[in-house]
UniProtKB/TrEMBL annotation:
Protein's organism: Falsigemmobacter faecalis
Name of the featured protein: Tricarballylate utilization 4Fe-4S protein TcuB
TM regions (residue ranges): 105-122, 142-162, 214-236, 248-268, 288-306, 312-332
InterPro entries: Citrate_utilization_prot_B, NarG-like_sf
Keyword terms, alphabetized: Membrane, Transmembrane, Transmembrane helix
């Protein structure tokens, strides 16, 4: 499917109104109970439903109105398109998001290569400590703005999305409900807890849920490892590298392994899934993003294994290239979906309480 935004919204409204009249899939996931609150669907209502959707596809495999029926419903695909459109409209500049999702592999590969070559050419030392290769101050000067500025772009986009979907003042209960759902990937378990139909069509599977959990918790462990390492550097005067039993390694190594395992499994699942039930125009960008996550984690693990060897400077340059690329592409890659989905879950908690 490929629509300009007005046509996309009109087609989404047509399909959702048919679903709302049928209600056969009411217990499948969070989208369908949320749908029943409305009789008319504004663009903001559709954006909200789309960001609640996890593209599990169970509704499509159960639907009596998919093609060749004249209604030709494809709810997972149309919501995937609306979801993608919401990110592109609210994150600025939108042209960068569209470019990444249409040429994701090429853009990602080129950025990693250029940045890694830059770091390797700019190295100031040889083997041993990371900071013998690149000074700590240099890395902070490069990575701090590359992390903060994309987050600012995401924050501005979320503010716009929040207004469009009717978000209100957040309460502790809103946060509790939303984070509880995220923690267990509740919506990827389906309405009955049996999983979703992403890669096995009409058979339920928990595989996609587990791969998402592995990536999310792996990323959080790696982020925590970096945070603790920063505190150790500044507060305890303990610069890297750190030993196997140090807090950064006890968190970072399992985190990296989880990210690699979850990312590879997600790639395999996406290769098995029916592409017509998603946003086909952004398939390459989605795969590039998952591959980038795997590259970040795998290069980090390889870097630790090579510490003190002649391979370390090259692997450090590669790892820094993947991490900096991830940061710079944050607002424009599918990484942004986590922020929008959390916002949708918070809004949903608010709508439930009236």
């Amino acid at each position: 499917m490929s629509f300009e935004t007005p046509g996309l919204i009109n087609e989404a409204r047509r399909q959702i109104e048919i679903c709302n009249a049928c209600r056969y899939c009411e217990g499948f996931c969070a989208v369908f109970p949320a749908m029943t609150r409305n009789t008319d669907f504004a663009a903001g209502d559709l954006s909200h439903l789309a960001n609640l959707c996890h593209n599990c596809r169970g509704c499509s495999y159960s639907c009596q109105y998919t093609e060749p029926h004249e209604f030709a419903l494809n709810v997972p695909a149309i919501l995937a398109e609306v979801r993608q459109d919401s990110w592109e409209r609210h994150i600025r500049p939108a042209a960068l998001a569209r470019a990444f999702h249409s040429r994701g592999v090429a853009i990602m590969g080129l950025m990693v290569l250029v940045i890694a070559v830059f770091f390797y050419a700019a190295r100031s030392g040889g083997e041993g400590s990371f900071y013998a290769v690149f000074s700590h101050n240099t890395l902070v000067a490069l990575f701090l703005p590359a992390f903060v500025l994309p987050l600012l772009s995401v924050a501005l986009g979320l503010r716009s999305y929040w207004r469009e979907t009717g978000g209100r003042r957040i309460t502790p209960g809103d946060l509790k409900g939303a984070f509880a759902s995220v923690a267990v990937m509740k919506n990827l378990a389906g309405g009955h807890g049996e999983g979703c139909n992403f890669e096995k069509e009409n058979r339920y599977s928990q595989r996609r849920r587990f791969s998402h959990q592995a990536i999310m918790y792996g990323f959080l462990l790696c982020f925590a490892a970096t945070g603790i390492a920063t505190l150790m550097h500044y507060l305890l005067d303990m610069p890297a590298p750190y030993g196997l039993l140090s807090p950064p390694k006890l968190l970072g190594i399992p985190g990296g392994i989880l990210m690699v395992l979850g990312g590879v499994d997600m790639i395999l699942s996406k290769l098995k899934a029916d592409p017509t039930l998603g946003a086909q125009r952004v398939w390459g960008g989605e795969m590039a993003f998952v591959a980038l996550l795997v590259a970040v984690a795998a290069s980090g693990l390889a870097l630790y294994a090579a510490t003190g060897s002649t391979l370390m400077p090259g692997l450090l340059a590669l790892h820094l290239g993947t991490v900096l690329t991830l940061f710079l592409l944050l607002p424009f890659s599918k990484m942004v979906h986590g922020f929008f989905r959390l916002a949708a879950l918070i809004v949903e908690q608010q709508k439930k309480r009236g």
